[in-house]
What does this fold into?
Amino acid sequence: MKIALRDSSLLRTNLYIDGEWRVPKDGRRIPVYDPASGAWIAEIAHASERDIEDAIQAAYRSWQSWKNTLAKDRGKLLRQWGEAMLQHKEDLGMIITREQGKPLREAVGEIIYAAQYLLFYAEEAVRTYGDIIPTPFEGARLLVLKQPVGPVGIITPWNFPVAMFVRKAAAALAAGCTCVIKPDERTPLSAYAVMELAHRVGFPAGVINMLTGDPPQIGEMLASDARIRKISFTGSTATGRLLMQWAAKVPKPVTLELGGNAPFIVFDDADIPSAVEGLIASKFRNSGQTCICVNRVFVHRHIAADFKKALEAKLEALQIGPGVQNPDVGPLIDDKAFEKVEHLVDDAVQRGAELSCQLFEPHSRGLFYPPTIIAEVQPEMDIFRTEIFGPVISLIPFDDDAQVLHMANDTEYGLAAYFYTNNPRRIWTVTEALEYGMVGINTGRISTPHAPFGGIKASGFGREGSKYGIEEYLVTKYLNWSGL
Ligand code: ADP
It folds into this structure.
């Protein structure tokens, strides 16, 4: 293992099942690489069918006592886990940077962000209130209880290898559910390190389990097993559909946080410097590999030239390099991601878009894709319809509100949208017209544990964070208490 840490025992490469680290039953392993250099870093466990079955059974068995553990005691463990993450944030950040590529500053930021979900849901655990309903029947009382849905299967991607699973697990555990978690096999080390901290703070055996292996096999087993009562997934729309189909066999509820195609609209009365700053913050975070990254930038024709000039100046100042050097932009995750971004830019340029700024030649620096601006993008180009997941800004001019709203909504996705204007009337009409789950108004930053994160249309359903997030893990039980 090639990552130097203060606490090297955070580096775990085996499965975490029923409260212990286990080698996979058939001994298989998966290599993990550093995207900045291509170097091998470690080999992690590939779960066998028996291991997956053990994890499901452990989550099911431990649920019988976890659901009856006092909410304040569940909250206490969540708080301790969050505090342990904050104590080890530098080491955890370093592991993320090495396996995922993002700048160290952002990786440590991810740890702080993830820990905040644990601290938030530590408090929310004690607030899963029910109701008493005014009775329509003589001699009866009607009550509503909120109870945990049961063991949850959690599957998460590589772009936020810690935060994506922690924000699900925090709400699920607070509600009284147990979990089987599958992080992405490209970025498992940071997730296992965070599991090591859960182990140290003393969650009862079986309450949280983590495994890696063959994604479709684990996904199908979790989704189609009746002991797992809920699936919570973040990733591509294609995988979300598959999980939903498997879950339909039981059937069981699913929460899906899928792809996005975020519009960023700059109206002609907007404050241009602040719009440029918001765009840079949203677009280049994690090298453009976030599901709420700006994907299409609509700029009013009157200000398009000024906006582009200001943007180019900012782009040219960006530092690009390995995450450990704390640049502004790191590498993409793998060759497939690189080829996808390259295709989208080539397709747009071939169909008439203008390559207005590209910091260096693609392929000249391994998996580092150059920050790029392309202008005059049109709806028929692939880049208009596809989540870019790379540091590329596509500019689209517009003339009026109706036209830009039509274009902004002209996508299968509906996760995040952003717009900049100083007109209060427009703020309200545009907010209501945008078909998206989240709207940033005069800001490019929206995600926080205090607010509901999630989408509509092909971006999925269900919410994470806030009081809404815990509802995903609760079922409503109605009692008719008669004979009184
Ligand atoms: P991305 O394009 O962001 O990598 P994926 O949907 O491929 O999105 O991956 C998100 C998560 O889903 C990862 O943990 C990955 O291993 C898992 N995954 C990928 N394919 C499948 C599948 N067929 N069944 C279950 N899980 C899958």
Summary: The mean pLDDT is 97. The chain is about 40% helix and 20% strand. The radius of gyration is 23 Å. Residues 313 and 357 are 10 Å apart (CA to CA).
